[in-house]
Write a structure and sequence with these properties.
Layout lengths: L2 E7 L2 E6 L4 E5 L13 H23 L3 E13 L7 E13 L3 H15 L1 H9 L2 E9 L1
Parallel strand pairs: 5-6
Antiparallel strand pairs: 1-2, 2-3, 4-5
């Protein structure tokens, strides 16, 4: 897997993946940018949510769970001394569906974290991660 970041103008950049897909990266106005794209730390958290979430929902579906909606919410706290350093991360998996089994949801999240998402393993080495599972009847 390869990626590159190219400067485009002022404090704006474009990230490009192997697939050719481009993601705008920007700097917030307070730091002299235009706030016109994702900031790198936001992309890391989005990647974490996507990595763990896509696997968790896939496992739930394979286990025959009737999931009708799914969302992953990631919240990261930072230090005041160094605002780019995370001190804790909370990942909430919100499943909606019919007669969802909590044990199946917990197992899918656990399998995703342990086996299928290298992003979570990397983050876990640097910062505590709390996982919350919410089940809603659809």
């Amino acid at each position: 897997m390869d990626a590159k970041v190219t400067w485009s103008q002022r404090l704006s950049f474009v990230g490009t993946a192997d697939s050719g897909f481009e993601v705008p990266l920007g700097v917030i106005k307070d730091q002299g940018g235009d706030d016109d794209g994702f900031r790198p730390m936001e992309l890391l958290l989005i990647g974490l949510a996507g990595c763990t979430g896509m696997d968790a929902i896939s496992i739930m579906q394979k286990k025959g769970q009737d999931v009708t909606a799914f969302e992953v919410r990631v919240h990261a706290d930072r230090t005041d001394q160094h605002p780019k350093v995370f001190t804790s991360i909370v990942i909430e998996y919100v499943f909606a569906g019919h007669n969802l089994d909590r044990a199946a949801a917990e197992r899918s999240v656990q399998l995703s974290a342990e086996r299928y998402c290298p992003a979570q393993a990397l983050f876990k080495k640097a910062v505590p991660i709390e996982m919350i599972i919410t089940l809603n009847e659809a």
